[in-house]
Amino acid sequence: MKHVLSVKQFLDKDLLASLFSRADQFQAMPAAEYPKPLEHMTLATVFYEPSTRTRLSFETAIQNLGAHLVTVENAADNSSWKKGESIEDTAHMLNAYVEGIVMRHPEIGMPARAAAVSKVPVFNAGDGGGEHPTQALLDLYSIQRMKGKVDGLKIALVGDLAHSRTHHSLANILSIYDVELFLISPESLAMPEDVLANLTKQGVTFHILTSWDDVIGDLDVIYMNRVQKERFKLIEEYQALKGSFILTNEIANLMKKDAIILDPLPRIEEITVEVDSNPRAQYFQQAKNGLYLRMALLEYIYTS
Ligand code: CP
Fold first, then answer.
1. Strands, DSSP E only, in the chain?
2. pLDDT in tens, 48-61
3. How many structural domains compose the chain?
4. Among this protein's residues, is 104 annotated catalytic?
5. Of 3, 104, 113, 163, which one is the catalytic site residue?
């Protein structure tokens, strides 16, 4: 594996177990003892869409493993993309300067187009409403770490399933496990057909629901995400749907005592702030896990 473009490159339980075990080691290791497999390399982060977690955790992981970092602050406005340069030409140029490219783009397939001309690894850090493979890895890692297993769990994906790339990638990676999935959204924000087709092909039991009322007390994991404002053509449509599923403390307390609440963040209004102190709320730890998972992934890509 050179590029990391899709979660479908990771449908291998042994590979996942080895990444998660290495991420566990990084969590336990003093920073002074981090290995430096990326020493004498430079990696670039090029984000054409906003990011807090993905960009900063990748940048921290890159530097923790010994590499230098170059970045474009707001690449949509401050790179030569703004002047009309193609993504392929940008990738050609970055190959002259760096040993790896971490890219986020609002259009589906742009990191793959960059990878097609790149001799250095390209990491898809989220492409429009398509995929977010490294997020799915850290989500799965968080479930494994927090619940001690993935097989046998009842997991709900809730919110804007139509546009949420994190929901798409997580559903696809969960398809190799023996899980029961509850896909809960307004009818107009249902999971895309290609994701449903993959779940069917893999034999996953899943339920398409427009309410969580009948299942909330049975869930082991609830994975929320905001309604993705930036994917709507009409702001009125977004306004009408943005409050469809709001997880309050009252609802959270209907869940099993050992259930966990995840969210890739940013949280907008899909989880009320009072839930943060509920022992089931694990979304900030989930985001922290992303640093160690990305360190494990970078080490794997550059040393295997
Ligand atoms: N989860 C996630 O992708 O967050 P950012 O948009 O802040 O990177």
1. 42-47, 68-72, 100-105, 122-127, 154-158, 180-184, 205-209, 221-224, 260-262
2. 999 999 999 999 99
3. 2
4. yes
5. 104
